[in-house]
Amino acid sequence: MGMFELLGLAGSVSLISGWRLYLTVFVTGLAMRLEWISLPENLQMLDAFANPWVLAISALGAVAEFFADKILWLDSIWDTIHTAIRPLGGALLALAVVDASDPAWQVIVFLLGGGAALMSHSAKAGARALVNTSPEPVSNAVVSTGEDIASGGLLFLAFANPVAALIIASVMLILCLFLVYKGFKLWRKMVSNGS
Predict the structure, then answer these.
(1) Helices 162-194 and 138-160 sit at what angle, rounded to 10 degrees?
(2) Can you tell me the distance from the alpha carbon of 84 to that of 67, in angstroms, rounded to the nearest whole number?
(3) Between residues 98 and 100, the one the model is more confident about
(4) 152 CB neighbour count, 10 Å cutoff
(5) In the structure, what pLDDT confidence band is assigned to residue 15 with cuts at 50, 70 and 90?
(6) Of the four listed, 30, 108, 173, 189, which is most buried by Cβ atoms within 10 Å?
């Protein structure tokens, strides 16, 4: 893979980890184990993603996240708990994918990966909190299933065609920025009306 493809893969997996961290860790570890992607020599310590224990625990986490995300309000509690975990996971995933022999480049990739994961997590958590206010219980499961399909599809695309995945991830990041901005404006409006 060339540098542009690696950046596409790193950007995509870090963005997706803001929604589905455990699924992303599992699929990335599986990709490393099956040698769909290979680690550069200076980052061999991150081959821990391909460790059978890490694969098993991330698979267990993915199943737990799948079910927790379908239950009204439990999904928001789950998101709150993972506010620090998902961005760190996204940063580490980006670092695991990109060959960064320069320490400054490693820091840049780490920060950008964590930032992308934090932005997608914030948009997801905010949108899900709004969906939870809906009086009917079906919308929560429908939105969660849509996130599952989008995450799985983008993960598959990230490994099959990283450039296309980077384009889609960039559009989704812009959408996440827009959702976070709109959510902040709504929150400010609610706070000012409540005072």
Answers:
(1) 150
(2) 20
(3) 98
(4) 14
(5) confident
(6) 173
In terms of Cβ atoms closer than 10 Å to its own Cβ (0-12, 13-18, 19+), residue 16 is buried
Q: What is the mean pLDDT of the chain?
A: 82
Averaged pLDDT, 29-48: 71
Rounded Cα–Cα distance for residues 28 and 45 (Å)? 15
Say how far apart CA 131 and CA 71 lie, in whole Å.
12
Scanning the chain, the segments in alpha helix (DSSP H) are: 3-17, 21-33, 52-68, 74-81, 85-97, 103-132, 138-160, 162-194
The predicted model scores a pTM of 0.79
Cα distance between residue 9 and residue 28, in whole Å: 10
Residue type, 15: L
CA distances from 158 to 1, 60, 68, 128 (A): 12, 22, 25, 25
CA-based torsion, 132, 70, 74, 76: positive or negative: negative
pLDDT at res. 191: 76
Residue 138 in tokens: 């079906």
DSSP 3-state of 136? coil
Per-residue pLDDT, averaged over 179-192, amounts to 78
